[in-house]
Amino acid sequence: MKSFVLIKPDAIKRKLDQVILNELKSLPCVITKQAEVVVEDEIILKHYHEVIVRLNIPGFKEMILDEFKNQKVFILQCEGDDDHLIQMIRTKIGATDPSLAEPNSIRGRYGEDSLVLAKASSRMIRNLIHASDSVDAAEFECDLWFNR
Question: Could you give the strand order of the β-sheet that contains 30-38, starting from the edge strand earlier in sequence?
Answer without folding.
Answer: 30-38, 72-79, 2-7, 129-131
